[in-house]
Write a structure and sequence with these properties.
Blueprint: E1 3-7, H1 9-12, H2 22-32, E2 41-44, H3 50-60, E3 68-72, H4 75-79, H5 84-101, E4 109-112, H6 121-125, H7 130-151, E5 154-156, H8 159-162, H9 181-200
Parallel strand pairs: 1-2, 1-3, 3-4, 4-5
Helix pairs in contact: 2-9, 3-5, 5-7
């Protein structure tokens, strides 16, 4: 079975080994359960916003249908101060595109929430108010959750666990911003039930 993972640094696994990326770890968990899932096809680049992911998909031109499609995008929209209205419009379009890659079946699409980078040492170096960043992330996640539920795709909330990095440095990579393989392992565990259901519902 085929797995397409769409996103930004959190999907490509900035600052971790390829096998530590959450899509790779999710695939390993599924294979351990006897599900014959191939390595994920990644369309993701550090720094991408919603419109840049759209262009990246155009360039990569992945050929569906895929049995499982994941989507995690929006942190760079928030970081750059882009509007929530724009995010809603562009996220909704990306989600519809993801559903298309899943053969038109929204039940095969798993959306992950945006993690909270406001708790990281990187945010502290920028003198960003963690409470303000967190509130903004919550607002963006309210949008992506609503759009996901409206279309019947599956939603996985990794944001609460991402905030554990405020008092557990082992959850962050050496750059002090991106998740470590340990955090990605928890994201994979959180996504496992939704992914299992997505693949089992075929």
């Amino acid at each position: 079975m085929r797995f397409l993972a769409l996103g930004d640094s959190y999907t490509i696994g900035e600052s971790v080994a390829s096998e530590e990326r959450w899509p790779a770890q999710l695939g390993a968990l599924l294979r351990a359960e006897g599900i014959d899932l191939g390595d994920p096809t990644l369309v993701a680049t550090t720094g991408w916003t919603t419109d840049e992911l759209w262009a990246g998909i155009d360039h990569a031109n992945p050929q569906g249908p895929f049995d499982l499609v994941s989507l995690l995008i929006g942190v760079n929209n928030q970081y750059r101060g882009r509007s929530r209205d724009e995010y809603r419009e562009q996220f909704a379009a990306l989600l519809q595109r993801a559903i298309g890659f899943a053969g038109g079946n929204p039940a095969r699409v798993v959306v992950l929430s945006i993690p909270d980078w406001g708790v990281t040492p990187y945010a502290a170096r920028l003198e960003r108010d963690p409470a303000a960043v967190g509130a903004d992330i919550d607002a963006f996640n309210a949008i992506n959750r609503a759009e996901t539920e409206r279309r019947g795709a599956r939603y996985v909330d990794v944001t609460p666990f991402s905030r554990e990095a405020a008092h557990d440095p082992s959850l962050l990579a050496a750059d002090g911003l991106h998740p470590s393989g340990r955090m990605y392992a928890e994201w994979a565990r959180l996504a496992l039930p939704a992914a299992r259901e997505a693949l089992g519902g075929m």
